[in-house]
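Researcher: Please predict.
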Amino acid sequence: MPEAPTASAIVAYFDVDNTLLRGASIYHLGRGAFRRRMLGFRDLARFGWQQLRFIAVGENREHMASARERALELAGGRSEAELTELAEEVYDRYIEPKLWPETVDLAREHLAKGHEVWLVTATPVHIARVIATRLGLTGALGTEIEAVDGVLTGRLNGQVLHGELKASAARDLAARLGADLADCWAYSDSRNDIPLLNLVGNRVVVNPDAALERYADARGWATLRLRPASIREAQRRVRREARAARRR
């Protein structure tokens, strides 16, 4: 049985790509940019190849570096408002149909418990914030692109939010909110998020890649397969085991 409700914040962290939606969100940004003639066909083809590879084998450092380069090429010289407008259009046209309703429902189970639900992703934060807002989640942490006077420079503000850096950002957020990480939750499909998953007291791997599956099995972590029985059990686990947080 979960403990009595706490006055402290509890955070559920959700990865985005291949956890909340099928494939890579940066690819859909590329599709939207192509539609607006911000990119050529060759650029779109590169985005498409990355998407197919990502679905087949998961993310790796090469994928992350390539995605970063494409995002920066797209962003340079454009206004923050223009990128946000593009992200809104991309969400409506491409991302919403690719969302896994089962994972979205899990996020809403956490909201019902009084938890804060934050997306934490390597994708540009402009896209992540739009996804979070449209789904009624609390907020999003993502890769920051540098801007000067509202114009994107084409350089990163810091580094890609990936691996250890993703865990560090999640730790900083918990500290700002006064959340006890032992009560917090994290969901991801990727071995690259092992630092994030190890950070919290409750972790669930979602359709994991082979390396994460081995790691999770060795530690007895919960695994969510996007099948009805597995989804129902994951939802029951949140209702049964997650500590409630008083509304703030």
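Model: Residues 76 and 153 are 5 Å apart (CA to CA).
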